[in-house]
Amino acid sequence: MNRIVFIILLFLVPVFSLEGQDTIMFSAGPIPMYGIINGSDTIFMSTITEVVVSSGPKSRGEQRDMRKYRKLVYNVKRVYPYAKIAGRKFREIEAAMDTLKTDRQQREYINHVEAEIKSKYEEELKNLTITQGRILIKLIDRETGQTSYELVRQLQGNFHAFLWQTLARLFGSNLKMTFDEEGEDKLINDIVIMVETGML
């Protein structure tokens, strides 16, 4: 029976070649396949990517949880690139500030970076939902190791930090939110890891 399946597969595959006396190599699209001839037996072999199989949600509660999870995945994938940009920019600013001698040079540099970020990302960030904004605040803390409030305070001073915190509070957010990867943000952290490894 195995030999019959193998012979049928050989005829279905458009490209094949012989590799030595004991191995037959052929391809089915992008996946190389091999047939190893061992005496009177032919063994069919192929390498495929890992597939995770899980049963779908059965109850209404499970369906609701699945919808919430999919929405969380969507929101994380939507804002994660901005958190990465924020982390990269923060490291650039830290490095540049060490080279600037006077307060005036530092202020001019900060104003320049702020104008650059606004021109590139302001319109996109305006379209984020409140939930996406909250996730972004947490992910910025994950990327930089500092809350958004602390970043604004360092770069623009206490008054601006207070002003932005007050505005965030009006919209139900908090710039002082931290990222708790082992607690309430574990699911977000798992999603980020899956995004980073290409699983999502």
Describe the structure.
With 200 residues, the chain is of the alpha+beta class. It folds into two domains: 2-46, no CATH class; 60-196, no CATH class. It contains seven helices and four strands, in the order H-E-E-E-E-H-H-H-H-H-H. It has helices at residues 2-12, 60-99, 103-126, 130-144, 148-156, 158-170, 186-196, and strands spanning 15-19, 23-28, 31-38, 41-46. The chain has a four-stranded antiparallel sheet with strand order 1-2-3-4, with helices on one face. A hairpin with a 3-residue loop joins strand 1 (15-19) and strand 2 (23-28). Helix 5 packs antiparallel against helix 6 (158-170). The radius of gyration is 27 Å and the shape is elongated. The two termini are 39 Å apart. The model is unreliable at 9-21 (pLDDT under 50).
Averaging pLDDT over every residue, what do you get?
78
Strand elements, count: 4
Number of helices: 7
Helicity level, as a percent range?
55-70%
**Mass-distribution shape:** elongated
Quick gist of this model?
The chain has 200 residues and is of the alpha+beta class. The chain is built from seven helices and four strands; from the N terminus they run αββββαααααα.
List keywords for this structure.
single chain, 7 helices, four-stranded antiparallel beta sheet, 62% helix, 200 residues, elongated, alpha+beta
